[in-house]
Batch of 2 targets.
Target 1
Amino acid sequence: MIDKRLRVVLAEDSVVLRDGMVELLGARGCEVVAATGTAPELLAAVAAHRPDVAVVDIRMPPTHTDEGIRAAVDIRARTPEVGILVFSQHVETVWASRLLADGTAGVGYLLKERVARTSEFVDALRRVADGGTALDPAVVTQLLRGGQRHKVDALTPREYEVLELMAQGHSNRSIATLFAVSERAVEKHVAAVFAKFGLRATDTDNRRVKAVLTYLAESGS
């Protein structure tokens, strides 16, 4: 049962698909506050309406290459409180990595042909709007570029719990509060996860994102 009317901005260049999604989301208790067909219109709609979540296709006019996901990255930088659900037929790894650079909380990436039920899509939409994550395993696999699986098997139970909470968008401070331990203790667990996953610090350090992506890939989330 929908207990909160979700406010959505929809960006889809196919008029038929866009109109169908507006009708579908309305029937599922969501309010589509704007439905757009170009990236500039998407940016303007998000700025004007400040929705709970924006649904974004990757390829939009005029070049039909990566306008949509570039706009999504821009939205995340300008209004991080707005959830982003990329909904596309394609995986664009470069810009997807940039979209996830500050963490996976409030971000989703689903492939159109792999969503079997309307309820799955709406559930993912609400999860992203609530600050959660909804990443198709096929997307995660491509982002990881075929990295080794089952790395989580090397983690201790507490390290696994910490990683699971990281995947839910919790900060070290938040995890420390949940476990009633010091933030320093959590930092040690996070460092252990990085070490066991072979994630070394770099100039553009995004080890936290890579650790979460590995967790999602191996858990099938």
Note: The chain has ten helices and six strands.
Target 2
Amino acid sequence: MSAEPGTVRPGGRTARVRTAVLRAAGDVLAEQGFAHLDLADVARRAEVGKTTVYRRWGSVTGLVADLLSDMAEQSVPRTETGSVLGDLRANAALVRRTLADPRQGALFRAVIAAATSDSRTAEALRRFYEVRVAEWVPCVEQGVARGELPVGTDAALVVRAVSAPLYYTLLTTGVAPDAAAADRAAEAAVAAAAAGVYVVG
């Protein structure tokens, strides 16, 4: 089976081309939204030949999928503080900083909006969050091992519970959550987890 366009990890000049194209695609998404993402325009911004972009990514959705894959790979690794609350506060702070960033926040809004009507973008977005949730799952698992959370706690559900209210705030108000909101999100998720809300099976 051949790889999906844009998913092969290149080196050398090809890597530089990929970096430039993904940066340009992210800029367009942040500035103008998914509807205005055009491969020819991205190629022009990246100073890359149109045929290179069309051959490599094939479509706008293929390009967005690769952009999200790259973002997941480049994201900051988890923080381990020695307590599940400390770890998840760090997670919430990272999510808040991302959403508050003028470029990143706008980019995520554009991709989320596109995912509501485009199945390939939706799948790429799901894969992005699967990678990010998996990165932070060990923090919750360690909390269970230390006895801070009950055995049987679904770690992925807890991690998602931290970021969910932060995204909801951004999407429903248009304003990025502040540091206090991030702390509340982490504290609420940990309190619910400690009460057994996320015990499954």
Note: The chain has a mean pLDDT of 89.
